[in-house]
Recover the amino acids of this structure.
């Protein structure tokens, strides 16, 4: 099993690319959803204050 | 035609009167070229090899320094709007401004650059072709750069932004210009890249002058 | 399309695109990482391809999309085209960044060097700067209509330049590099690698479409935050 992850000498390269890419892709997907939620909360707070 | 001549004349006159602003890019060109020649030391082979890319790139940067001021005076005086209000005077006025700008930057740069090339030990023939490619290349830089200058006019901190916007677009001109000179220098075929450069120039001449005025007008209205 | 209809109608699309995209990416990635034999010449490092190729594909498509939206905006002044450009530019910047990064890391074990100045790498690098210019210009212009117009012009000029850049770079690099390094990345892909690669490319498209759409929804909401329907939406639920 460990050998499959090590991929000869190339494991470091492959895994670093995959981890960074998946991280960025998740961030890319989360960002608009989070900011929409943030906007909504800000707007409804403002309504309550007014 | 009257608008064209008047604008051209005024731009040239203003440039002569305000001297230093017109000279700045040229001094920059000489200075950077000299510094490059200096830091390369006494390695003649290295100088001969790097001479063309260095001079061409420095010429491009010098040209870009001048771009920011292309519409600045009119913007500051508030005359940019009045020039562009009348539909029929917009095109001759922009063409005149572009030509004036090239006469004040591209042309002197093309003349000066070979002198710096001398410092790199380039041969006279190579210097000739260097000057020639700059004569073809700098109008493209002025035209393409004018679009950028029209987009950022009046933004205040336009300098770095303008560089950032137009530099990627200058890459083909730079590569073809340098390529032509190097091909010539090493006795290889230099006509194809030269034709490429000319093709870009003719494309830019047809498409860009007519589109500058609408872009400026839009930047003004809003 | 009215912003309200867009906003309400697009929610389902975002969910579907996210779901299909994530499932597809998981499938293609796991397949590519564990169920494909190592490649004959490159060994295991070729597995980076399953990220690199989709990212590179997508960055070009996103830029073309932005340029088309620029034309649409200039001709018809369609607000949604501007919203698309605003949402897509940062996404394009990141996918281009991923393409560059994965290319750099892939280069080290395959060619023995991190970076090769060849036509494709330089084109992608320039694309990166074009995306950056889009974002920088939009941020620098404070009035939204002027920003939209300026960004559209820039996108169109950039799109016209892309083929010119490609050809000039290709010519210039072949001039300087006699074929010591030949890049035959995609030329010899066998069926074994092709299926997970195609799955990943398609899923990348779908997922990024969802991301851009989600970004557009946020922008629409932000731009219309004082209208009654937005107020009603934030009040509800």
């Amino acid at each position: 099993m460990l050998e499959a992850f090590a991929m000869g000498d190339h494991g470091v390269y492959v895994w670093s690319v995959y981890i960074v890419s998946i991280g960025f892709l998740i961030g890319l997907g989360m960002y608009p959803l989070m900011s929409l939620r943030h906007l909504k909360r800000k707007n409804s707070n403002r309504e309550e204050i007014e | 035609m009257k608008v064209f001549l008047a604008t051209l004349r005024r731009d040239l006159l203003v440039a002569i009167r305000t001297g230093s602003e017109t000279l700045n890019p040229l001094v920059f060109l000489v200075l950077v070229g000299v510094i490059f020649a200096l830091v390369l030391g006494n390695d003649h082979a290295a100088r001969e090899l790097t001479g063309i890319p260095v001079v061409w790139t420095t010429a491009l940067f010098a040209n870009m320094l001048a771009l920011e001021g292309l519409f600045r005076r009119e913007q500051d005086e508030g005359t940019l709007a009045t020039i562009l209000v009348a539909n029929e005077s917009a095109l001759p006025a922009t063409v005149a401004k572009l030509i004036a700008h090239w006469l004040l930057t591209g042309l002197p740069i093309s003349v000066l650059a070979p002198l710096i090339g001398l410092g790199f030990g380039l041969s006279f023939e190579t210097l000739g072709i260097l000057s020639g490619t700059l004569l073809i290349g700098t109008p493209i830089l002025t035209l393409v750069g004018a679009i950028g200058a029209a987009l950022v006019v009046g933004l205040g901190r336009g300098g770095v932004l303008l560089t950032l916007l137009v530099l990627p677009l200058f890459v083909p001109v730079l590569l073809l210009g340098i390529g032509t000179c190097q091909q010539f220098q090493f006795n290889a075929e230099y006509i194809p890249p030269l034709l490429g450069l000319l093709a870009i120039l003719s494309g830019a001449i047809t498409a860009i002058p007519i589109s500058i005025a609408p872009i400026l007008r839009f930047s003004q209205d809003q | 399309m009215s912003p309200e209809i867009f906003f309400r109608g697009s929610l389902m699309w975002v969910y579907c695109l996210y779901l299909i995209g994530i499932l597809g990416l998981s499938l293609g990635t796991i397949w590519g990482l564990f169920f494909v034999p190592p490649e004959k010449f490159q060994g295991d490092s070729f597995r980076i391809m399953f990220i690199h190729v989709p990212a590179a594909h997508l960055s070009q498509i996103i830029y073309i999309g932005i340029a088309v939206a620029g034309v649409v905006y200039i001709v018809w002044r369609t607000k949604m085209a501007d919203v698309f450009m605003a949402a897509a530019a940062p996404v394009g910047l990141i996918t281009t960044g991923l393409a560059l990064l994965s290319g750099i890391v892939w280069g080290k074990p395959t060619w023995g060097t991190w970076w090769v100045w060849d036509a494709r790498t330089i084109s992608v690098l320039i694309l990166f700067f074009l995306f950056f210019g889009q974002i920088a210009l939009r941020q620098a212009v404070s009035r939204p209509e002027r920003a939209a117009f300026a960004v559209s012009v820039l996108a169109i000029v950039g799109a016209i330049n892309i083929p010119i850049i490609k050809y000039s770079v290709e010519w210039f690099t072949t001039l300087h590099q006699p074929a010591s390094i030949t890049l035959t990345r995609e030329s010899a892909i066998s069926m074994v690698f092709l299926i997970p690669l195609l799955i990943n490319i398609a899923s990348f498209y779908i997922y990024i479409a969802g991301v851009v759409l989600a970004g557009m929804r946020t922008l629409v909401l932000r731009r219309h935050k004082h209208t009654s329907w937005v107020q009603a939406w934030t009040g509800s639920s």
Observations:
- The longest helix of chain B spans residues 87-119.
